[in-house]
């Protein structure tokens, strides 16, 4: 199928899959196998020399994952992708792949807590230093944090839990002026709402656990590249030096359109091993089939709920770029014309005891730590996702003590609003009669 001409809604169902090559199965088959028969020794040599595409062992490649990888590549407008076992594996492999061997990363603190902890604690233990951006909304702040040893800027296109929008074009410019890539975590918008490559990002990572999978039933991560960045500019010798996994050839010359993800596959997946299972790849593919339909509806529900909350006396602030006076509105109009996603934060106007009652009283919303599910979810980041951060880091990350994060699903929006209404009332000691 020549995919270049198909639009997003078609690619999400058909991209990267040719039934003819899979016994005409209309649904992508689950290749539930650890190994693949080699056939004969000549074939093994051809596969090893990258002269023939073939599968040997599911840690370094599997046909079900291959379809998922091609599908996200098509949806993203990239040139190659790699699937891994979780979003954190995607973030950590992407950052290691640029900064291994003592490099540095520049990032804002307004990050998913797992990423924040990776950057603050784990990467420094591996001799990868992180220089923090003071103001995530100011592109100049990124420039100030860069040193000669910086290997990438890493940021979220929509920050968690602040719901701030990254000025991708400006930050990409800063990165490129310094010969380094911009790596973005695009989990919140998904490629349906935002394609970071269109604005100069070089590597896009996902937790497919969230809206891509969309049903809260499986962990997964994806890393996507395009072929714009020059990895042979002297800052990344590990991409061009003789590679023992490629007959001591230059990996960048062998895979000019896929060097980043190939390196992750043959080094990190092969040697660290955070591989996605074929069954989980199948579930993520199932989720992606309905991505645009779910996200459109979630965005509509979210916009209504943001408006409702912003008029509620028990709510001191609401962060969602759809609101008229939101500080990210201008950036959202540029980068997210189809909607600013299904996740919002709001400040509860009250004390922790009242917040406890609010969370305990929700009946439709699930109280849990996930986002991007087709079911609506609520959590208090400072007590859950960001609970391991120091108070100072919580403030920097935007996990304020009174902040509640909602991830809006595809339920009937009136039921969601009535659920919030009764829980907010109960938190203040008022009881609303059930309808
Ligand atoms: C959830 C999440 C991650 C981590 O993904 P897992 O699949 O849970 O490992 C990374 N980044 C963002 C923005 C996330 O929401």
Automatic annotation (TrEMBL):
Residues bearing the modification N6-(pyridoxal phosphate)lysine: 210
GO cellular component, one term: cytoplasm
Highest taxon above the source species: Bacteria
UniProt keyword annotations, A-Z: Lyase, Pyridoxal phosphate, Transferase
GO MF entries: cysteine synthase activity; homocysteine desulfhydrase activity; methionine gamma-lyase activity; O-acetylhomoserine aminocarboxypropyltransferase activity; pyridoxal phosphate binding
A Pfam match: Cys_Met_Meta_PP
Enzyme class: lyase
Needed co-factor(s): pyridoxal 5'-phosphate
GO biological process, one term: cysteine biosynthetic process from serine
Catalytic reaction annotation: L-homocysteine + H2O = 2-oxobutanoate + hydrogen sulfide + NH4(+) + H(+); L-methionine + H2O = methanethiol + 2-oxobutanoate + NH4(+)
EC number: 4.4.1.2
Family listed: Belongs to the trans-sulfuration enzymes family.
Protein name listed in UniProt: homocysteine desulfhydrase
Species per Swiss-Prot/TrEMBL record: Clostridium pasteurianum DSM 525 = ATCC 6013
């Amino acid at each position: 199928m020549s995919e270049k001409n198909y639009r997003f809604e078609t690619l999400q169902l058909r991209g990267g899959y040719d039934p003819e090559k899979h016994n005409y199965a209309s649904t992508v088959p689950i290749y539930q196998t650890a190994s693949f028969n080699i056939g004969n020794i000549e074939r093994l040599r051809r596969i090893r020399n990258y002269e023939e595409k073939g599968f040997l062992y599911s840690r370094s490649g599997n046909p079900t994952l291959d379809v998922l990888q091609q599908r996200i590549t098509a949806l993203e407008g990239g040139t190659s992708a790699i699937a891994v076992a979780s979003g954190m594996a995607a973030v950590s492999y992407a950052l290691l792949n640029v900064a291994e061997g003592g490099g540095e990363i520049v990032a804002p603190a307004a990050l998913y807590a797992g990423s924040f902890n990776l950057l603050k604690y784990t990467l420094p233990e591996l001799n990868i230093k992180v220089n923090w951006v003071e103001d995530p909304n100011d592109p100049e702040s990124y420039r100030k944090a860069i040193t000669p040893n910086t290997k990438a800027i890493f940021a979220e296109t929509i920050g968690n839990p602040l719901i701030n929008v990254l000025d991708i074009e400006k930050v990409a410019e800063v990165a490129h002026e310094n010969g380094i890539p911009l790596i973005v975590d695009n989990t919140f918008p998904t490629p349906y709402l935002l394609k970071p490559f269109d604005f100069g990002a070089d590597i896009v990572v996902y937790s497919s656990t969230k809206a891509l999978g969309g049903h809260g039933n499986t962990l997964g991560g994806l890393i996507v590249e395009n072929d714009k960045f020059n990895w042979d500019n002297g800052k990344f010798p590990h991409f061009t030096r003789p590679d023992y996994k490629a007959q001591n050839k230059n990996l960048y010359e062998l895979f000019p359109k896929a060097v980043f993800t190939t390196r992750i596959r043959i080094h990190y997946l092969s040697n660290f091993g955070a591989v996605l299972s074929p069954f989980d790849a199948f579930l993520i593919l199932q989720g992606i089939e309905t991505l645009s339909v779910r996200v459109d509806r979630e965005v509509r529900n979210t916009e209504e709920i943001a408006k409702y909350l912003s008029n509620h006396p028990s709510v001191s602030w609401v962060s969602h770029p759809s609101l008229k006076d939101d500080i990210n509105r201008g950036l959202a109009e540029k980068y997210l014309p189809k909607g600013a996603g299904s996740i919002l934060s709001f400040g509860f106007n009250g004390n922790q005891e009242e917040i406890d009652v609010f969370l305990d009283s929700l009946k439709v919303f699930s109280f849990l730590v996930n986002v991007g599910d087709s079911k609506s979810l609520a959590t208090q980041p400072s007590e859950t996702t960001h609970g391991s951060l120091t108070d100072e880091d919580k403030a920097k990350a935007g996990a304020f003590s009174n902040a509640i994060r909602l991830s809006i699903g595809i339920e009937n929006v009136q039921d969601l609003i009535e659920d919030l209404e009764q829980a907010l009332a109960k938190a203040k000691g008022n009881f609303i009669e059930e309808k």
